[in-house]
Write a structure and sequence with these properties.
By secondary structure, the protein is of the alpha+beta class. It folds into two domains: 5-371, no CATH class; 389-475, no CATH class. It is built from 18 helices and ten strands. It has helices spanning 5-16, 34-42, 79-91, 95-121, 128-139, 141-147, 153-173, 176-192, 215-231, 233-244, 251-263, 272-281, 286-304, 309-314, 323-338, 346-388, 402-408, 447-451, and strands spanning 51-52, 55-63, 66-77, 282-283, 341-342, 394-399, 414-419, 435-441, 455-459, 468-475. The strands form two sheets. Strands 1, 2, 3, 6, 7, 8, 9 and 10 form an eight-stranded mixed β-sheet that branches. α5 (128-139) runs antiparallel to α15 and α5 runs parallel beside α16. The longest helix has 43 residues, at 346-388. The protein is globular and about 75 Å long. The relative contact order is 0.11.
Length: 481
Amino acid sequence: MRFNISIILIIITIIALPFMVGINKIFFGFEYEDAFVSSFVASQDNPLDYSDNYRTQGCHKLIDNKCYIKKTYTGHYITYSLFLKIWDKIFKINPYYLHRIGNLILYVFTVIFSVFIIKSKRPRSDLNNLIYFFILLSTSIPSIYVLNSSLIENISISINILTIVFIYIESFERRSLNKVIIIILLSISIIIKRENLIMLPLLALILRYNDLKKKEIILSFSFLIISQTIINPFYTEFIEAEQLEKATFSIDYLIFQLPQYLKTFISYNGFLNFSLALIILTRPTLKTFYFIALFFAFIILYSFHYRSQYAIEDHSISLFETYRYMTNTTPLLLGAMLFSKNRELLTMKALMLFIFIFSYVNSYIKMEDFINEEIRNYHLINERIEDSIKLEENALIIDNFVLVTLLNLKHKKNIDVLQYENRNLSRIDTFKYAKIYLINRFKLIDTSSITKRGILLKKIPHFSIDKTDVYEITIKEKDPL
């Protein structure tokens, strides 16, 4: 097995490209609080203290550095947080950068292992389609966004890529060991993200009736079934439906979400380069269409499921809000590419090179905007507030995105933190605190309903920015919390 120098340089470039954007800046993903919960849990001394039924938990009431009220993020399994904790234990990384180091290690392993295993199993393979896929992933704005964030899609897409690679290997090697590995990888994929249940039809590509009689296959399926029985993915749907007071799956969601998800693959700020690559660089086979069909089934599944409470209220989602979910579907496009034939025309490859360069330049600019927006709306605000608090003062920060404040605490001052809830404001012990701040991120709090209850809000202009207001609170009635 030999690699020429050009392949090695391409692999190094592929790995480096996504992580060169804002390398020295703070970025979690700024998508609601989902982007912060995995890093928050991983930064705790014992992540399992913030786990309930394998789901992650955040803290909604921190008093004297002790959490008194926790909230379960039902849609987020703790797998990714435990993965990040491994690197926290080894390197003692600042929570700001923990997920980036973890994602980089994961991506390095995924790219190098995928190339190495296919080349070792099939030395004459030209690796073109595999290399094209990783170039596409490393130059597209949605996937660059995910790779730099602390979203669980990072570990999900890596496991799914490895699954597709082993399915490709099994197509010409035919070994029980490959089938066991594929079943185990699919089991892990579903343990990471319940939506990955849609990947199970891939087993139809590798299993025959006689395989189901083999002991190793039965044991592998036992792991899959037992793990899902323990985790119970449907528990999440019951809890979320109860919280929303609406169904989590609905054709109403499909009507406004599906067009936007599909738009991601025809937008230059989305995955247009993937669509063009499939058309320009590959000639489909029967298995290609199987992966494409499953890819569209995945998108339809996402479309039926509610995106967020805000999406339900607005009956719309933005292109940006499709990024994380559509990135999670891309391993199926790898399957479509691996099982396709190459088009060898030099002009087509030259065209794709131009598309790759344009896509990356555009992605770099967009990511810089995303990073700067997160810093302005999240971290800079907290930095200014904490700098204003003296060492001898007790302060309370009330935040409608409480995990942002918790991750930004330097724990050098006496600061308590509370998730915003209207009913709790008049019950705060004002004698304890020299300063009480309210952070209204993205102006989602109706402040008029607060002032009607005799609570005074004084806006602090030099802390506030265009999308987020910061207030100092004065409460007339002083009933202890």
